[in-house]
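From the shared-data thread, chain only:
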Amino acid sequence: MAEFICNLKKYRLLKNLTQEQLAEKVGVRRETIMRLEAGKYNPSLKLAIDISRVVETPIEELFVFD
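Structure, as tokens:
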């Protein structure tokens, strides 16, 4: 089974965003961002695109399946 690696926290912090702020910008709860950053949740394609746009980072750098 592929391992899910999430680099979201790194890029979120580079944009000086809290989990709450990012969650608000992409229309999810803070808990969703927490679970993503912990690697316990795989985002939908729409959510991945929305997050990618907010943090201005390609999806492939944010979410890696190894």
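The chain is about 60% helix and 10% strand.
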